[in-house]
Specification:
The complex is a heterodimer of chains A (846) and B (104). Chain A has 25 helices and 6 strands. Chain A has 846 residues and is mainly alpha-helical. Chain B has 104 residues and is mainly alpha-helical. The chains are: A mainly alpha (846), B mainly alpha (104). At the A-B interface, α9 and α10 of A face α2 and α4 of B.
Chain lengths: 846, 104
């Protein structure tokens, strides 16, 4: 195997080391990674041992809350013409139930599982951006609670979790209820994207040395694909919610057919996000299943490589099936046939995984403990949901059952079998690792059987109710139509399911009691690194991995790791740190310094939430103040970054030396910026789709663009901006105070040029007299302008930040990362401005 | 990045194919009708091109698997995933070409 970085892999043979370790190095590690002591320290903790637990806890809180809403709804539907809930309250409840389960429980829960488990699983001390994890968590918690509380004030949305226009537009949904959904969800997605960036960089760049891609745990593969899917899919919903909010607040008619808009655009944008969302939820759960099944069967996963391929294939095909939610909208028959074929093809990668689990269970010695039961339950439920999914992929059948309880049954089978049961299996499986104390197997079995029975009673029956013609989202039904008994059974089933969840809640409270023994250890005889003895610093030393199942195949590994005989047995610099490794072969590149706990992520999240929430309640000035404070917090947080250590290189174990600072593509910050820009690029791509789509609906009403002469100037200014930004990076690296000043000046000029290009473009469009409120062309053109204006503003803030750093003497050749990242951002902004200019002027042309 | 593109090549081509046929049908629907013969033939030609590209990628991946230079478990793993991905993409593209070929 050729080296990826020039690292000599024979150096791995130095491990495990044999010489005795100094006695005080463990104390130093524990001091650097110390436990929080005060309430404030608990709130500002950033390492994954805490944030991961908070995150999972919050996600499960929303699961319970949304589940309570389901119970109320089922109580209403237990009897025909029941008066338990008023119609509007029922509408708000099913909307909040669906929204909370999808946005506040399912995605955050699996993301949380990643944050909690990945560092230990990869043999890292923490994920690369712990403060970003903390920010993502607090933003999610505050935003989620505010959204949920809207229900208590009758301010919750009532248009269903996919908020189709025209029902959700200002005419049919007056008031701020729908705005809570639009702004709340947009905000929570920012949190999800922040988490995804953390996970991608973590999986690719902080693996234990030797953990090549063939030895990457399946769960980490799943989380990597999951996070990439979030980066591709979520920008679509961010764009959709922004456009809808612009339509509601400013009257820009993206979805109003009377002014050239089209409600179908919302459906395309929503489902381009919404369908991958199902796989975004499923994949990490499948990764957890593929990790737990070998443990409960005590044998390696059958077809490991096929399972990885299946997860990759699921990730790809998930973006090709969005329109199967739109079979009844009158799309051309050939288009529905393409989507139908793609939807049926999903069963191949899903089937590979299911058969792999069955084969693994069949080839090993199955242990029917609680995780094992949840795994088997998941297999049964998910397979049934998959089969009804293939049925619904057939267009004529879908026409019959669309918007009936059959679809409600199908989606709950898929989501409960594909995500909820695997999540419970994961909780029961990994709890001894997380809290050093297992959950009760006896209570767990009770919980499983109640949930399994309740699930089938509730949702299997719904297939029949749906086939009998009961539409979804109705708050009551007439007696004597054969719907009474199935609805009653569904309600009883829902309460059985809730009883199972209640038992689990009791067990969890019992588990986290602050007294009693806590030394569970590797009670499942599991093979992953996360089962190594660990503390708040994760593993005592970072092992060299030579197997997919290290604890099964590398004899004596746990003892050697605990004795500090591998990489980084101490704190090499006196700070929190982990090893930065290469993406393919996990070869050590550098020592990565990790940040200390800080209150800034918490404050930043609080003020970001304040900005969105105050905007929702139309308190515009307080919202602006909150936004400014959020920017201040984020800048202060970033101020402490990009500081090189006095030691240029350090011993990371066995005499191997590694640099303490890297920049460019070798650094983790560069990766995070590139991924962030991919998010921006996806919003741009979906905006371009929206523009072309709306033109295709109404081409005759499209007005001619501004004259082409301004385009040449716009392109030239953007190109000059890119050149100056690139020049700034080059000049800074040549060293010296004057060059640092010149680099700062060039970057500021670059920002100015890109901003100027945007101003030129905007004024050219204003001169045409195009009005954003009159037709869809005006709305989309000015939406492009607004998006570019946002990027220009952020580039301006970055320019200001750079100027301040230069004044503080922090723009230097030995720490060029800040300038590199700003240059990347400016170059992207310039490219985006040029693309928008070209598209809006040349398509469809004059 | 080249290694990633090679490993995911088959799946990327699959994605190019399904996005392409959707785009062709949508464009056809704007210009004339989605199932106009000329546009269907264009979609068929596009599917044929994608199939050829996937076949080529599959052959390359298989050759790399058999090559003695593919040393090491990680290289082997990536080549295997590339080959299996292409095989899956081949099937999927054939399947999604059927609506154009045999009616819809």
């Amino acid at each position: 195997m050729t080296s990826e970085t020039g690292f000599d892999r024979t150096l791995y043979e130095r491990f495990p080391t044999t010489e005795p370790r100094p006695r005080d190095e463990l104390d130093e590690l524990e001091a650097v990674w110390c436990r929080p002591r005060s309430t404030w320290q608990w709130m500002t903790a950033i390492n994954n041992n805490f944030v991961g637990v908070y995150y999972v806890g919050a996600a499960m809180l929303f699961f319970v809350l949304a589940g309570l809403l389901a119970l109320l709804m089922r109580t209403q539907l237990a009897l025909p013409l029941n008066g338990f809930l008023p119609q509007e309250t029922y509408n708000q409840m099913f909307t909040v139930h669906g929204t909370a389960m999808m946005f506040l429980f399912a995605v955050p829960a699996v993301e949380a599982l990643g944050v909690l488990l990945l560092p230990q699983m990869l043999g890292a001390r923490d994920l690369p951006f712990p403060r970003l994890s903390a920010y993502a968590f607090w933003a999610y918690l505050i935003g989620g609670l505010a959204f949920f509380c809207s229900l208590l004030f009758g301010l919750a949305p009532s248009g269903g979790w996919f908020m189709y226009p025209p029902l959700s537009n200002i005419t049919y949904s007056p008031g701020i209820n729908a705005d809570f959904w639009l702004l709340g969800i947009g905000f929570i997605e920012i949190s999800a994207i922040a988490g995804a960036i953390e996970i991608i960089v973590g999986v690719l760049r902080t693996r234990a040395p030797g953990m090549t891609l063939d030895k990457l745990p399946v769960f980490a593969w799943a989380m990597l694909i999951f996070a990439c899917m979030i980066i591709i899919a979520f920008p679509s919903i961010i764009l959709a919610t922004t456009l809808m909010e612009l339509e509601r607040a400013l009257g820009w008619p993206f979805f109003d057919p009377a002014r050239g808009g089209d409600p179908m655009l919302w459906q395309h944008l929503f489902w381009f996000f919404g369908h991958p969302e199902v796989y975004i939820i499923f994949l990490p759960a499948a990764g957890a299943m593929s990790t737990i099944v070998p443990v409960v069967a005590q044998t390696p996963l059958v077809g490991h490589r096929l399972v990885v391929l299946a997860m990759l294939a699921t990730g790809f095909i998930s973006f090709g099936v969005w329109a199967h939610h739109m079979f009844t909208t009158g799309m051309p028959t050939i288009s529905t046939s393409f989507f139908s074929a793609a939807s049926a093809a999903v069963s191949i990668p899903a089937g590979i995984q299911v058969f792999s689990w069955i084969a693994t269970v069949g080839s090993g010695r199955m242990r029917f403990n609680t995780p094992g039961l949840f795994v088997l339950g998941s297999l049964v439920i998910f397979t049934m949901g998959g089969l009804t999914g293939v049925m619904a992929a057939m267009v004529p059948f879908d026409w019959q059952v669309h918007d009936t309880y059959f679809i409600v049954a199908h989606l709950h089978y898929v989501l409960i079998g594909g995500m909820v049961f695997p999540l419970f299996a994961a909780i029961y499986h990994w709890m001894p690792m997380v809290s050093s104390r297992p959950l009760s197997d006896r209570l767990g079995k009770w919980a499983f059987w109640l949930m399994f029975t309740g699930m089938h009673a509730t949702f299997f029956t719904m297939h029949l109710t749906g086939l009998m013609g009961m539409p979804r989202r109705v708050y009551t039904y007439l007696p004597g139509r054969g719907l009474d008994l199935p609805n009653l059974i569904s309600t009883i089933g829902a309460f059985l399911f809730a009883a199972g969840v209640l038992i689990w809640v009791i067990d969890m409270i019992r588990n986290f009691r602050p007294f009693g023994a806590r030394n569970a250890g590797n009670i499942h005889d599991a093979p992953g690194l996360e089962w190594l003895p660990n503390g708040l610093y994760s593993v005592r030393s970072i092992p060299v991995v030579s197997s997919l199942y290290p604890l099964w195949d590398q004899k004596g590994l746990a003892g050697d790791v605990e004795a500090g005989r591998y990489f980084l047995p101490r704190t090499a610099t006196g700070h929190r740190e982990t090893i930065l490794t290469s993406t393919l072969n996990a070869e050590p590149i550098a020592l990565m310094r990790l940040p200390q706990p800080s209150g800034w992520p918490l404050w930043a999240a609080l003020f970001t939430a304040g900005f969105f929430l105050l905007l929702t309640v139309q308190a515009y000035w307080p919202s602006v103040v909150s936004g400014v404070l959020a920017i201040y917090c984020i800048m202060t947080w970033a101020w402490s970054l990009d500081r090189p250590l006095p030691q240029k290189t350090v011993d990371i174990g066995a005499g191997i030396r590694a640099p303490t600072y890297v920049s460019g593509p070798a650094s983790h910050g560069w990766w995070a910026m590139v991924i962030t820009l991919v998010v921006g690029g996806m919003v741009l791509a979906m905006s371009a789709f929206s523009y072309v789509f709306l033109w295709s609906r109404n081409p005759q009403s499209w007005a001619p663009p501004p004259e082409v002469a301004s385009l040449a100037m716009l392109l030239a200014m953007n190109a000059a901006g890119v050149l100056l930004a690139w020049g700034a990076c080059r000049i800074l690296r040549r060293g010296g105070r004057v060059r640092a000043a010149l680099a700062t000046l060039l970057m500021l000029l670059a920002v100015g040029l890109v901003g100027g290009a945007w101003g030129l473009d905007l004024s050219a469009w204003l001169a045409t007299g195009l009005d954003p409120t009159v037709n869809a062309q005006g709305a989309t053109v000015y939406a492009f302008m607004a998006w570019q204006g946002f990027f220009v503003s952020v580039a301006g803030l970055m320019g200001l930040f750079l100027l301040l750093r230069w004044m503080a003497g922090l723009v230097r050749a030995d720490c060029p990362s800040t300038v590199d990242l700003i240059a990347l951002f400016v170059a992207y902004t310039a490219g985006q401005g040029a693309f928008a200019g070209l598209l809006l002027r040349l398509f469809p042309g004059s | 990045m080249r290694r990633w593109i090679f490993t995911l090549g088959g799946l990327l081509l699959w994605a190019v194919h399904f996005v392409g046929v959707y785009a062709i049908a949508s464009l056809a629907d704007t210009v004339s009708t989605a199932d106009a013969v000329g546009w269907r033939m264009a979609a068929l030609a596009f599917s044929g091109l994608c199939l050829l590209a996937v076949l080529l990628h599959l052959l390359l991946a298989v050759r790399r698997l058999a090559s003695p230079s593919a040393s090491g478990a990680a290289d082997h793993f990536m080549s295997q995933v590339a080959a299996m991905g292409s095989a899956l993409a081949l099937l999927a593209i054939l399947w999604q070409t059927l609506p154009t070929l045999i009616g819809y």
